[in-house]
Amino acid sequence: MENAIEVKTLSAWFGDHQVLREITMGIRRNSVTSVMGPSGCGKSTFIRCLNRMHDLTPGFRMTGEVLFDGRNVISEKIDPVLRRKVGMVFQQPNPFPRMSVFANVAVGLRFNGKGKSKSEIVEVVERSLRMAALWDEVKDHLDQMGSSLSGGQQQRLCIARALAVEPEVLLMDEPCSALDPVSTSKIEDLIEDLSEKYTIVVVTHNMQQAARISDSVAFFLLGELVEMDKSAKMFTNPSDRRTEEYITGRFG
Amino acid sequence: MTSIAFRRKATDRIMKALFLLSAFLVILPLFLIFFDLLWKGAKELKWSLLTDLPRPVGEPGGGIANGILGTLTVTGLAMAGGIPLAVLTGIYLAEYGKGAFASVVRFAVDLLAGVPSIILGIFGYVLWVLPMKRFSAWAGASALAMIFIPIVVRTTEEMLKTVPVSVREGALALGIERWKTTLFITVRTAAAGIITGILLAMARILGETAPLLFTALGNQFWQTGLDQPIATIPLQVFSYAISPYDDWHDKAWAGAVVLILMVLVLSIGARLLVRTRR
């Protein structure tokens, strides 16, 4: 199967501190790839390289290649356009404060200057909320503040917001770690549904979650990619001893 | 109860009483000023105060209508120039200001906030009045703007810093350009706080007298143009108060009541704004 993103010898530094060491991996199109590993292994830093979220971090730099749509994301200067195609959902649900549910979803369309008409925006908002499995819960009060929803609903709102700009890739940085088990299982079901149309990369330190949702798993340790494989193989018969030690709970 | 426990509880009560007493003493002057003003200004507090021009000495009646209009004019001018400059500077400091230049700006703004207002008046005099060879609304407004701007710069910066990084990241992750993220997401999120800062700064300059003495000068009549001397309430209160006439003293009190009511309305408005937007 074809890869949506091709990462080649990606290294990254915060100041003098190297946090990623020559990561090379392919991320398959329309599948779920989990990035797991203990805290501080560089997994969040890694996916934030894929949409250049580090741009505003002083002292951050990266080398190597991240090929997306045939372009090296790292050397491209036009980042906003990239981020429209590579959406992101964060660890803490972050709906825009003082904006309604509707405005939260519509915001990407409004400010990306695509010049959509009012009725088109209404349509996209509904479609996005449906895809995020939130429509039925909010359709009667789209005017209420996004921040008044429950944590799990807020996270699905953020997913809808990301989907509204029609990305190809969806990066999720521990999207369930701030949520209760019921909300977590809703998001996990959603991830599975979305993977039919989107390429999804999920960072998680929860191995069970990685096993449940992903087609392939990448295991990071101390800034290195230890190994990457189909999730069935990874959790039953890993080839690296460190992976085995991690999944059997000997550290991390 | 052991004596140690008793002593601790007693100390606790004494300290609490001390805190409470301090708080009471702090708000006491406000109420004293307010009631004293109302008491002494009551005699001249009538409709004509708001609608009539000042009259010559000895002639009863008359008001401060030109001062009310003048105060609004000069304050409005100061804000029209001050708001864009101050808010944009606040945005620069909060969103982009990490380097040495930003530190210089921050320090300079704090210094400006600390410059005695009479000196700003003299500065306005040198900057406007000497070259134009007349006192004017422009001169007064620019002196007031120098008081207004540092307050608004710092409140804007502080308010923007209360917006979580996650809000900016959320917007950037949608592919929204940074300047749009700043203006339409971050500033919008902090808007209530920024507007509150603007209203409080406005309340502050409404009552300024010293910077206007050498700039706006004051005027016994309706203003005729922004390049002419202009009356303001604080200037009228000042000149009435230092006059030797009893009925002028009464008018000074009444003018002070009008002024403090304007400030009160603005402060309450600012509070309501924050509350309803929360």
Polypeptide structure, described:
The complex is a heterodimer of chains A (252) and B (278). Chain A has 252 residues and is of the alpha/beta class. Chain A has a domain at 3-97 and 168-247: Rossmann fold (3-Layer(aba) Sandwich), CATH 3.40.50.300. In chain A, 37% of the residues lie in helices and 27% in strands. Chain A has ten helices and ten strands. In chain A, the strands form two sheets. Chain A has a six-stranded mixed β-sheet with strand order 6-7-8-3-9-10, with helices on both faces. Chain A is globular and about 55 Å long. The mean pLDDT of chain A is 92. Chain B is mainly alpha-helical. Chain B has one domain (66-277): MetI-like fold. Chain B is built from twelve helices and no strands. In chain B, helix 3 packs parallel to helix 6 (137-161), helix 3 packs across helix 11 (233-241) and helix 7 packs across helix 8 (178-189). The longest helix of chain B has 39 residues, at 3-41. The mean pLDDT of chain B is 93. The chains are: A alpha/beta (252), B mainly alpha (278). The A-B interface holds A 51, 53, 56, 58, 80-85, 87-88, 90, 92, 94-98, 107-108, 111-112, 158, 161-162, 165 and B 98, 163-164, 166-178, 180-181, 184-185, 188-189, 191-192, 277.
